[in-house]
């Protein structure tokens, strides 16, 4: 019973730290966020942070993973109404790109994430999205919806295009103005895979 309580407390501490970091990173950015302020805001010590995440970068990775997972779920939910497999895959990509306008996503996932955690294609959430896209591509290949291509390569290119588009929006001087242009290009590029009348 004691061990269960300890593991529950550890999980609660982990969740508190992620929530506090998410708020601090969104408001101040990764570099400016103070770990002492962050841990104090949830009544924990730096020791709890190091124990759960190793360091500040480990905490950023956990926050990015959480938000990136939410982004994937939101994209799927927004595209869920679309019946056609191909149109749904495109709608998911477009929904993901649009999330680059969200200030929290922009700052944490698209600006600080790549700057401090490296290539987004290697993040756990992105690898999960890649597999989901690959499964959709395989299904559409079998149904003759898309041209005969390598499923791994096609999934990688589609996911990379959506992520790169989101990164471009985040870095843009005028994200609102840039959004329709990049969505149009993403849609045109992706549609080259489709072999039925658009």
Automatic annotation (TrEMBL):
Domain HTH tetR-type: 11-71
Pfam families per record: TetR_C_41, TetR_N
Cited Gene3D superfamilies: Tetracycline Repressor, domain 2
DNA-binding region extent: 34-53
Keyword DNA-binding annotated: yes
Keyword terms, alphabetized: DNA-binding, Transcription, Transcription regulation
Record-linked InterPro entries: Homeodomain-like_sf, HTH-type_TetR-like_transc_reg, HTH_TetR, Rv0078-like_C
PANTHER family: HTH-TYPE TRANSCRIPTIONAL REGULATOR BETI, HTH-TYPE TRANSCRIPTIONAL REGULATOR RUTR
Name the record gives this protein: TetR/AcrR family transcriptional regulator
Source organism (scientific name): Leclercia tamurae
